[in-house]
Structure formats: structure tokens, C-alpha cells
Input
Amino acid sequence: MTAIVEVNDVWKRFDSVEVLRGLSFEAFKGETLVVMGGSGSGKTVLLRHIAGLIQPDQGQVKVFGQNIEALSEEELLPIRRRMGFVFQGAALFDSLTIYENVAYPLREHTRLSEDEIRARVVEALARVGLTKDVLPLLPSELSGGMRKRVGIARALMLEPEMMLYDEPTAGLDPTNAHLVSDLISEVQARVCDTSIVVTHDLELARAVATRVAVLIDGRFAALGSRDAVLESDEPAVRAFLTGEATSHRV
Output
């Protein structure tokens, strides 16, 4: 198996709070690794390390075989082009239309003609179940679920080798959460076969994960196959999973 991401003894502190405490793991080509944890557990911090958006205080982060923790922004660019990042709030530009939002990576990183860009944008939106009708709209004119789908479409524009999802179902009603879950599975099957998903959504983990990791107190309390982790008898893991299951029934 080819390791796409290798994290070795990573520590990260913000002020007096240790968020990551000697974290080590690998993520492999062709899998969907779901990292679960409660609010403030460090899930998003971990994802941002993998994207090179923040650097560890100690330890190494290797992506596509290259250590990235000491790279400059310019040196990180070719690595980031190989990954798609779907932010929790979709992170669309409020003042740009949907067309301009999705076209943005192509305008920044390619020399395609406007006709070619438009064709790519329409194709990407179709992949996530959106029609050309949304092209002239602003993000504020879309529902939360539609904005998440636009965020996924934009992340796919440079044909990434790995997708990173930060709480992709957060704030969505059950119907839209299910649609996004199905979309992540479809992207994994048809477009980009390697994903890391951080979430507190137990149903999403059940639906899309190949492996699951549970992040508690800055370390993985469990890391293994989906079924092995979700059925774990380890007390801390069981307490977290039971709490999450309860919160989703409320």
C-alpha cells in the first residue's frame, strides 16, 4: 500500500493548550480515512497540518512522499494542487458568483480559455448534482447543502489525487447530510480515490469510511478498520461513540 500522508510524532500547542500530542499515523492511497473527535479535539488542526496551512511545533508531516513542515508557501503550491480541500463552511467567496467561485482554481493555476473553463465548471457542478441555473447566483442565494456541494465541485477542479474534508455535514439537516455523504462516496469511487474526512458525524463515518480514527486528548484512542473501531470496547472510544450516537438522536 502506498502512503499518501505520513504523520510522525506531531505536536501542536496554542498558547498553553496542547492540541496534538505526539500524533503518528499513515493514510494510504485508495482509502477514506475518517478522523472522529469531539469539538476542540484537534481534528481540523490535524487536517490543516496535512494541507500545510499550519506547521507542527515538533514532528514531521510527509505528503506525497515529501516532508512539508518546513516548506515555504511557494514550495507548497505544487503539493496543494494535488489535493482538494473542502472547508467546513465551504469557504466560498461571498462577492463572486457560483461560476466565478468554481472557476477560480482554473484561472489561478491553468491557461485554459474561457470556453474551456466554462465547460469544466459546468461538468464539475453536474458531478455534484447542480445545474447551470446556479452559475449566476451568489453563495448567499443557495442553501447550506448546495454551498457544500459547490465547495466540493471547486475542490475537484484541478483533478486532485487526495481530498480533504473538514466537517462536510456540519450544520446540515439530515436530508442534506445524507446527500453530501453520498456525494463523498461517489467522488471516492469515480473521481478521487483517496480521502481524509474529519467529522463528529457517526452516520457519515459509517457511510464513507474505510478506516476510522478517534482523536481524544490529542492522540488517537483508536485507529483501524471502520467496523473494528465503531464496535470497539475500549472505554474512552465507547464513551465518545455512545455520546455521538445519542447527540444524533436528539
